[in-house]
Design brief:
single chain; alpha/beta; TIM Barrel; two-stranded antiparallel ribbon; 14 helices; oxidoreductase; (S)-2-hydroxy-acid oxidase; (S)-2-hydroxy-acid oxidase activity
Length: 369
């Protein structure tokens, strides 16, 4: 698809084409790429297309209410900004503009542990409800300091990313010899400078810093240093969500890290229902991965997610048109969700049920009957 820079996008996917034109190849590939064969990267989006809708007719949909609460915080829609790294590679003002757009749209923002703006800069830029993503470093005191700074600066929850004991093999970054900028949050604590002429310095930096020994038993330590609710991001199986509930986390996020870690894991929409059925409503289940349409949001909600997170489209909006682009991406998804709810006979989020969608599993069951 060729998209002219001066044109106004009419859907979220068109912002990706604008971002591709606006960004240097190295940076576009960093944001857009997945790991190894990128099988799961394609599946995250395409799996939604295999789910069909089962609308109800003759329902009063003259008023549609998309508002909800997430961990007790009111939001205009069940759409959140996922924590994605290095926003200043997309726009000079980076995460500050992303946060302002979140505030303007009244949605919750997840701030990346690898943000290019500091925790304090983002916190002071607007009144958006913000959650903070956490990685566990070998130097545990660095992770602890980031949690403390987030808590002091009004962040409302910790999103503990658990699918990255090592960095996935992102071959585009290796080919491009992707260079990570110095992160201001870590100035004086750790340097991103890596003396390695081979491949991506992101990979070398991650190998030096990420703690591959971090395990279930260590979550008790994290709980001991913060009063913030902890959500585990990176759950894909029934077995792991049961463990998560046993150790007392406040929520889980079904995510495969945007298909940037282990390739050939399921698309997140295909993993969602397994997790939801295991949870049985005991803790919130959020969803991350492959959202490009309001119909995608609706499908995830029908399969049991309380809300969805949106990652790459936010960055593409930022790269193409700054704060306005981020706001338009959010507004497009909200508008499309509102229309989908109306055409499906669902005036409120509570009206969206499992019976509103048909999945491949449903088709297979039908064939066996």
């Amino acid at each position: 698809m060729i998209f002219i820079m001066g044109d106004e996008p009419v859907n979220v996917k068109e912002y990706q084409e604008l971002a591709k034109q606006a960004l240097p190849k190295m940076y576009y590939d960093f944001f857009a790429g997945g790991s190894e064969d990128q099988h799961t990267l394609k599946e995250n989006v395409e799996a939604f297309q295999r789910i069909t809708l089962r609308p109800r007719i003759l329902v009063d949909v003259s008023k549609i209410d998309m508002s909800t609460t997430i961990l007790g915080y009111k939001t205009s829609a069940p759409i959140m900004i996922a924590p994605t790294s290095l926003h200043q590679l997309a726009h000079p003002q980076g995460e500050i503009l992303t946060a302002k757009a979140a505030a303007a749209c009244n949605v919750i923002m997840g701030l990346s542990f690898s943000s290019t703006c500091t925790i304090e800069e983002v916190a002071s830029s607007c009144n958006a409800v913000r959650f903070f993503q956490l990685y566990m470093y070998k130097r545990r005191e660095i992770s602890a300091l980031m949690v403390k700074r987030a808590e002091i600066n009004g962040f409302k929850a910790i999103l503990l990313t658990v699918d990255s004991p090592k960095l996935g093999r992102r071959e585009a970054d290796i080919k491009n010899k992707m260079i990570a900028p110095q992160l201001k949050n870590f100035e004086g604590l750790v340097s991103t400078e890596v003396h390695d002429s081979e491949g991506s310095n992101l990979e070398a930096y991650a190998s030096r810093t990420l703690d591959p020994s971090f395990s279930w038993k260590d979550i008790a330590w994290l709980k001991s240093i913060t009063n913030l609710p902890i959500l585990i991001k990176g759950v894909l199986t029934r077995e792991d969500v049961i463990k998560a509930m046993e150790i007392g986390v406040e929520g889980v996020i079904v995510s495969n890290h945007g298909a940037r870690q282990l390739d050939y894991v399921p698309a997140t929409i295909d993993a969602l229902e397994e997790v939801v059925l295991a949870v049985q409503g005991r803790i919130p289940v959020l969803f991350d991965g492959g959202i490009r349409r309001g119909t995608d949001v609706f499908k995830a909600l029908a399969l049991g997610a309380q809300a969805v997170m949106v990652g790459r489209p936010i960055v593409f909006g930022l790269a193409a048109k700054g704060e306005y682009g981020v706001k338009r991406v959010i507004e497009m998804l909200k508008d499309e969700l509102e229309l989908t709810m109306a055409l499906s006979g669902c005036p409120t989020l509570n009206d969206i049920t499992r019976n509103h969608v048909r999945t491949q599993i449903d088709d297979d069951r039908h064939c066996r009957l």
